[in-house]
């Protein structure tokens, strides 16, 4: 099978590593890829959101299956373009991808399907949004309605913080078109977890779960990011609770999407809050998470490519997904300055040395090769240093030992990924 994997982040590096192990694979192309994926297939200089360019590439390379990694190509209609070109695609249509492309759409689907989620309001202008938070009080969550690369959510603990978020998004345009309208919702309290499933029509097959660490600083302080690390599986959220959450929060959504004439096929990522009243939906994403995918996929024992091909054909009964009983952790190394303006250009060394350590995998994201062939930082989140272990403590210690081996003076990271889960284990 000839496969085109779309994307350039750590998630795509982890997906490429899993796909490359498949006996079904004949050739792997990654667009645009990164220096890490180049060791697993052929990188192609086509942007992930350049749908016509991706289709041209797929035709030229006689691609059998397109696997979109990030949300941008899905929201841009890559699955629809693939269908028109007669190429299989393991992702939802543009209409179904609105589950991630629009927070308002997701909330409307939840309300129609009876899915428990926070009370919400949508605003298209700053003045009524400001008036609402002043009357409602804090804490509240301010969300850009559109795609904002994981940076469009502010959990405001005070009215002043909510006012600033609204002004930044709606008046100052810090998130561009994504923040021209916002959703303001009640702040759910509890533990946040990420649930993943393969979906086709009204059917779903559980993939697994992970727990992300969104904020930049230790102790869950500072602004939200695209994700600073993850553990898998989450403590206290085992298979039985995952299955129950799938029944409560995913399968009703699939039925509602089918009823609307926009059935969902692909991977769903449900962000959940485990509240005292039970699981409630925070958001849907229409792809694997990052850095959750890195933590999940290093535990994968079954054939990811075979599962993706079955999903693309709508044949969930042929979808086999199996993970080891080990624990895993991913620790994101970001560039100094992230999530603001990151410091780029710094040389990164000793990744190969880190990967010789037991259970350790290093996935690249914001990297490139400079003119001298040196690996340098070229983005915000740059590396995901991951490890497996027979216990979460072993995985944690391995990952942080590997972080210390990597030589990158501009790198920053959280020192407490997984500690809350370890403390919960006693």
TrEMBL record:
It catalyses: 5-phospho-beta-D-ribosylamine + glycine + ATP = N(1)-(5-phospho-beta-D-ribosyl)glycinamide + ADP + phosphate + H(+). InterPro entries: ATP-grasp (IPR011761), ATP_grasp_subdomain_1 (IPR013815), PreATP-grasp_dom_sf (IPR016185), PRibGlycinamid_synth_ATP-grasp (IPR020561), PRibGlycinamide_synth (IPR000115), PRibGlycinamide_synth_C-dom (IPR020560), PRibGlycinamide_synth_C_sf (IPR037123), PRibGlycinamide_synth_CS (IPR020559). SUPFAM superfamilies: Glutathione synthetase ATP-binding domain-like, PreATP-grasp domain, Rudiment single hybrid motif. Pathway: Purine metabolism; IMP biosynthesis via de novo pathway; N(1)-(5-phospho-D-ribosyl)glycinamide from 5-phospho-alpha-D-ribose 1-diphosphate: step 2/2. Keywords: ATP-binding, Ligase, Nucleotide-binding, Purine biosynthesis. One of its GO terms (biological process) is 'de novo' IMP biosynthetic process. Its cofactor is Mg(2+); Mn(2+). It is an enzyme of class 6 (ligase). PROSITE patterns: ATP_GRASP (PS50975), GARS (PS00184). It comes from the Bacteria. The keyword Transport does not apply. Pfam families: GARS_A, GARS_C, GARS_N. Its EC number is 6.3.4.13. GO terms for molecular function: ATP binding; metal ion binding; phosphoribosylamine-glycine ligase activity. Residues 107-313 form the ATP-grasp domain. The keyword Ligase applies. PANTHER family: PHOSPHORIBOSYLAMINE--GLYCINE LIGASE, PHOSPHORIBOSYLAMINE--GLYCINE LIGASE, CHLOROPLASTIC. Belongs to the GARS family. This is Phosphoribosylamine--glycine ligase. It comes from Komagataeibacter swingsii. The gene is purD.
């Amino acid at each position: 099978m000839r496969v085109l994997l779309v994307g350039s982040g750590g998630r795509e590096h982890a997906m490429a590593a899993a796909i490359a192990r498949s006996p079904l694979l004949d050739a792997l192309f990654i667009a645009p890829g990164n220096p890490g994926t180049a060791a697993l297939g052929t990188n192609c200089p086509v942007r992930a959101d350049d749908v016509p360019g991706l289709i041209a590439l797929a035709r030229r390379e006689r691609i059998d299956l397109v696997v979109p990694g990030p949300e941008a190509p899905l929201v841009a209609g890559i699955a629809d373009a693939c269908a028109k070109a007669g190429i299989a695609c393991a992702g939802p249509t543009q209409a179904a991808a609105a589950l991630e492309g629009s927070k308002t759409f997701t909330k409307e689907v939840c309300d129609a399907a009876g899915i428990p989620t926070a009370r919400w309001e949508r605003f298209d202008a700053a003045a009524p949004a400001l008036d609402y938070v002043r009357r409602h009080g804090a804490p509240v969550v301010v969300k850009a309605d559109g795609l904002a690369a994981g940076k469009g959510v502010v959990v405001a603990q005070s009215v002043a913080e909510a006012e600033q978020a609204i002004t930044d998004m709606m008046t100052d345009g810090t998130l561009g078109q994504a923040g021209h309208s916002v959703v303001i919702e009640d702040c759910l309290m509890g533990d946040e977890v990420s649930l993943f499933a393969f979906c086709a029509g009204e059917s779903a097959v559980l993939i697994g779960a992970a727990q992300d660490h969104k904020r930049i600083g230790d102790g869950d302080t500072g602004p939200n990011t695209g994700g600073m690390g993850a553990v898998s599986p989450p403590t206290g959220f085992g298979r039985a609770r995952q299955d129950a959450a799938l029944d409560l929060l995913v399968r009703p959504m699939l039925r509602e999407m089918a009823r609307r004439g926009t059935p969902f096929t692909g991977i769903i990522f449900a962000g959940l809050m485990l509240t005292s009243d039970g699981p409630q939906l925070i958001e849907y994403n229409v792809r694997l998470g990052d850095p959750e995918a890195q933590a999940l996929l290093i535990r994968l024992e079954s054939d990811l490519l075979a599962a993706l091909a079955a999903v693309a054909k709508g044949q969930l009964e042929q979808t086999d997904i199996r993970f080891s009983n080990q624990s895993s952790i991913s620790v994101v190394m970001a560039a100094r300055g992230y999530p603001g303006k990151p410091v780029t250009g710094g040389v990164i060394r000793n990744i190969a040395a880190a990967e010789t350590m037991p259970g350790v995998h290093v996935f690249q994201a914001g990297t490139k090769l400079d003119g001298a062939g040196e690996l340098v930082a070229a983005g915000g989140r740059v590396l995901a240093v991951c490890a497996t272990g027979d216990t979460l403590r072993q995985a944690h210690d391995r990952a942080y030992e590997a972080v210390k081996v990597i030589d990158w003076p501009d790198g920053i990271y959280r020192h407490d990924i997984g500690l809350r889960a370890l403390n919960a284990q006693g």
